[in-house]
Write a structure and sequence with these properties.
Layout (H helix, E strand, L loop, with lengths): L1 E3 L6 H20 L12 E4 L10
Parallel strand pairs: 1-2
Length: 56
């Protein structure tokens, strides 16, 4: 699971937000599938790897 944010907000806020997003996705998926067939790795990027680059 990967969580991304954009360039708005502070680095620490965006890092925490992307972690929360990743964990939410992991929780959502784990209750819907047989997780014994899968391995999960949670990654989060904050501003380091935004989904959309700042074009301004």
């Amino acid at each position: 699971m990967t969580g991304h944010t954009d360039y708005q907000g502070s680095d620490s806020y965006n890092e925490a937000l992307s972690l929360r997003r990743s964990l939410a996705i992991e929780s959502y998926i784990k209750v819907r599938i047989d997780e014994s067939y899968y391995q999960f790795e949670v990654k989060y990027f904050g501003e380091k790897n935004p989904i959309v680059k700042d074009t301004a």
